[in-house]
Amino acid sequence: PSCLADVPEWNFDGSSTAQAEGSNSDMFLVPVRMFRDPFCLDPNKLVLCEVLKYNRKPAETNLRHTCKKVMDLVKDSHPWFGMEQEYTLLGINGHPYGWPDNGFPGPQGPYYCGVGADKVYGRDIVESHYKACLYAGVKICGTNAEVMPSQWEFQVGPCEGIEMGDHLWMARFILHRVCEDFGVVATLDPKPMTGNWNGAGCHTNYSTEEMRREGGLKHIEAAIEKLSKRHDYHICVYDPRGGRDNS
Q1: Where is the GS beta-grasp domain (predicted)?
Q2: 5 close to 106: Cβ distance less than 8 angstroms
Q3: Mapped to the 3 state alphabet, what secondary structure does 38-77 carry?
Q4: Whether residue 123 is found in the same domain as residue 194
Q5: Do 12 and 43 share a structural domain?
Q6: 188 shares its domain with 89
Q7: Measuring CA to CA, which residue among 101, 27, 58, 82 is closest to residue 203?
């Protein structure tokens, strides 16, 4: 396929994925973004889809549908996003990759943007992910070792409008797929290790065209003022468990 119009809709049994009841389980996969496939290579494609229920309404987990409506409403302001996705590499046993089996590595400090086998764990995995994203056409633009050993970050953007979610989700998918080949697991959990260890998140940089112009600071401050009135609501939708994962 050379464009999305060449990709057919598919359907699947939603009861197999806990997205539907067995009595009425048809779900539709509607293609919305296409990337090159870094695993099977050209001419194969990876296709990101929206999920619709049997009645063609968005599935409960399909938050892209409403996000796209909002992005279409504000397209004239050209909203840009730059996302910094932190993650932690774990062994199959759930223990951070490269950590001692019984105990902990030395205290945090030398690991952030570190170099050396005693400072960073899993760089070959990280660079494989980076190259796979570049091949796919994901707008990945950087990566670095994070504060906790075996914790890393990649950056996606700048992306405009709805493509921010599409590119971030594809980058996440490719990360999990690359880790599978290495026999490790990537987690986006905000606090994978209790205690005095760095948390992880997805720091999102955002701007509109008027924010990027001369004198844009007043528009930034106005946006912050609006956001402050919805703080509790935003916290509730920042993770799958209504804010509890980030508590």
Answers
A1: 1-56
A2: no
A3: CCCCCCCEEEEEEEECCCCCECCCCCHHHHHHHHHHCHHH
A4: yes
A5: yes
A6: yes
A7: 82
Q: Are 142 and 152 in contact (CB under 8 A)?
A: no
Residue 187 lies inside a defined structural domain of this protein: yes
| Same domain, yes or no: 45 and 62 | yes
pLDDT digit string, tens, across residues 39-71: 999 999 999 999 999 999 999 999 999 999 999
- pLDDT band of residue 237 (cuts 50, 70, 90) is confident
| φ, ψ for residue 246, nearest 5 deg | -95, 0
pLDDT in the model for residue 79:
98
User: What value does the mean pLDDT take over residues 114-125?
Assistant: 96
Distances (CA, A) of 12 to 81, 91, 153, 235: 32, 31, 33, 33
Question: How many structural domains does the chain have?
Answer: 2
The pLDDT, as a whole number, for residue 242 is: 87
- Within a domain: residue 188? yes
CA distances from 175 to 13, 39, 134, 143 (A): 26, 12, 12, 12
Q: Which amino acid is at 97?
A: Y
Q: What residue type is assigned to position 30 of the chain? A: V
Looking up residue 85, the CATH number of its domain turns out to be 3.30.590.10
176 part of a folded domain: yes
The per-residue pLDDT for 24 is 87
Confidence (pLDDT) at 27: 96
pLDDT of residue 246: 79
End-to-end CA distance of the chain: 44
Q: How many CB atoms within 10 Å of residue 39?
A: 13
Q: What is the C-alpha to C-alpha distance for residues 169 and 34, in angstroms, rounded to an integer?
A: 12
Mean residue pLDDT across the chain: 95
Range of the domain at 176: 79-207
Q: Are residues 86 and 66 in the same domain?
A: no
